[in-house]
Amino acid sequence: MANNINVRTVENLEELLFQDLAWRKKEMLSLKILVEQDQVNEPILLRAGIALLCAHFEGFIKKASNCYIAYVAGQKCLYSDLKENFSALKMEQEFKICAGSEKHSVHKNLLKKYEALSTKRFTDKYNLDKPYISTHSNPSSTEIGEILMTIGVETDIFDTKSQYIDSSLLANRHCVVHGERSELEKEDFLSTFNIIMELIDSYKDVIVMAADKKSYLRRIEDGE
């Protein structure tokens, strides 16, 4: 099975995100039912549950963001017509090389490659084995902010939840995955469940709207 994903229409994008959300929500809902019904194993389920909720939160943010970039690539736009973040994404490796060198020739080569992009089209394929971006296993509010800048999407849906994401969700997740003993309350889990459900639904809508409104373009002419 090919690992490349083509996303050519807004409908394709929305369906991909819907499918990805469906299996994640099924797992999270099943776990919620277990937590509410199994009092004997509640402490274990709560610990496992927090880790799973965090994993699905991270996984969907990563998948949706990569699918959005795949959609933009499917439009085959000139880099000169796209927001600068797509050129930055394409030039990522060159930036890293340049940052580690003091040679003028390396710096000059970077500029030449950047200038050459203006006449090229962004058509890079999204490969599941080599995604455009990663959450680096740390979906903190800062990391999410970087992802949003990487894909060129603006939203405030994470702003009001940033403190919760950093101080509660990730803190509890780190305790679990690092094997630390911690006492989690059922109310904490249920609150986390509701917040994660809200955020992933909202992020899906943000991504689809950005594609539909062509937010990836550097400028949108009236009437387009």
Strand ordering within the main sheet? 1-2
What value does the average pLDDT take? 86
- Assembly state (oligomeric): single chain
Q: C-alpha Rg, in Å?
A: 20 Å
Overall structural class, as computed from helix and strand content, comes to mainly alpha
Count all strands and give the number: 2
In whole angstroms, the N-to-C terminal distance is 37 Å
Helix proportion range: 55-70%
How would a crystallographer describe the biggest sheet? 2 strands, antiparallel
Taken from the alpha-carbon principal axes, the silhouette is elongated
Number of helices: 8
Strand content: under 5%
SSE ordering: EHHHHHEHHH
Low-confidence stretches: none
Describe this structure in words.
The chain is mostly helical and 224 residues long. Helices cover 64% and strands 2% of the residues. It is built from eight helices and two strands. The protein has helices spanning 10-37, 42-74, 84-90, 92-99, 104-117, 141-151, 162-177, 186-212, and strands at residues 4-5, 126-127. The chain has a two-stranded antiparallel ribbon with strand order 1-2. Helix 1 (10-37) packs antiparallel against helix 2 (42-74), helix 1 runs antiparallel to helix 8 (186-212) and helix 2 packs parallel to helix 8 (186-212). The longest helix is centred in the N-terminal third of the chain and has 33 residues, at 42-74. The radius of gyration is 20 Å and the shape is elongated.
